[in-house]
Write a structure and sequence with these properties.
The chain is of the alpha/beta class. It has nine helices and twelve strands. It has one domain: P-loop containing nucleotide triphosphate hydrolases (Rossmann fold), CATH 3.40.50.300. Helix 1 packs parallel to helix 2 and helix 1 packs across helix 8. The chain starts with a strand and ends with a helix.
């Protein structure tokens, strides 16, 4: 059975997608058979293969993993239609249109979660390592009971979790502490460390904050990733400029992924991550 690592964030746009992309390439370059996985993604930026459609973010992560793009890497894709309605795609195929209320209260914990686990099981049979990406924040306490993209999945799979935050927005220490405080004790134990993302300046300035974080949460910072200028397609509508993934740009994309992986590997404690996988 393959090993699993999960990346969650303190918010949308914290850097989950970018970090997973980098980790997929780092571990693939180290000889692992790697696959990305995001149980549930809400995005209108999709990748279409013959016979299926998934979020383009997971398609790019598959390329980073040097793996074949599969609908099982993003078993639930929600494409927003407006007025709290979305088109729901399951394992790459259109299923039906649903309101948010129907999705959460009548679908996600039954068929939705089953589909996600089924796809994850398919990938586990083929790959050594699955790097799972969470969605939004695990501390959305109004949605906690329905959140199959974050801690419910991590708990089910007994997966170690890395929590990433965007320091460029400010308030990253508060975001980490606040997120941890809103998690149950059981879910707090799954979090094995933090990653500070999009930092500019001298890392030594952050050192006192790291110690205080450890005192409050008992968790350590595993790395500080600098703000990286990348020419990668967008994850979702948080980005101002739309960039879509095109097959003919795969070579250029691969070059950008290698650049990203080198920078992340230099600034992240990869040995500690490997220890989590044992």
């Amino acid at each position: 059975m393959s090993r699993i690592l999960m990346v969650q964030g303190t918010s949308s746009g914290a850097g989950k997608t970018t970090l997973v992309t980098a980790l997929c390439r780092i571990f693939a370059n180290s000889g692992y058979r790697v696959a990305p996985f995001k149980s549930q993604n809400m995005s209108n930026y999709s990748y279409r293969e013959s016979g299926f459609e998934i979020s383009q973010a997971q398609a790019i992560q598959a390329i980073a993993s040097k793996a074949e793009i599969s609908p099982h890497m993003n078993p639930i894709l929600l494409k927003p239609l407006g007025n709290y309605r979305s088109s729901v795609l399951l394992q790459g195929k259109f299923y039906k249109k649903m309101t948010a209320d129907t999705y959460y209260k009548k679908f996600v914990l039954t068929k939705g979660f089953q589909i996600a686990l089924q796809s994850l099981a398919v990938l586990q049979k083929k790959y050594d390592l699955i790097i799972m990406e969470g969605a939004g924040s695990p501390a959305e306490i109004n949605l906690h009971n329905y959140d199959i993209a974050n801690m419910l999945l991590a708990e089910k799979m007994e997966s170690p979790v890395i929590l990433v935050t965007d320091i460029e927005r400010g308030g990253s220490f508060a975001s980490l502490v606040g997120t941890m405080s809103l998690l149950s004790k059981q879910h707090q134990k799954l979090v094995k460390g933090f990653v500070i993302n999009k930092f500019r300046g001298n890392v030594n300035i952050l050192t006192p904050g790291f110690e205080r974080l450890r005192q409050i949460t008992s968790k350590s910072v595993l790395g500080v990733i600098p703000l990286i200028e990348m020419d990668l397609p967008n994850e979702d509508s948080l980005d101002d400029k739309i960039k879509l993934f095109k097959k003919q740009n795969k070579k250029k994309l691969d070059t950008e992924i290698e650049k990203l992986a080198r920078i992340v590997k230099k600034n992240l404690d990869i040995k500690s991550l490997e220890m989590l996988l044992k």
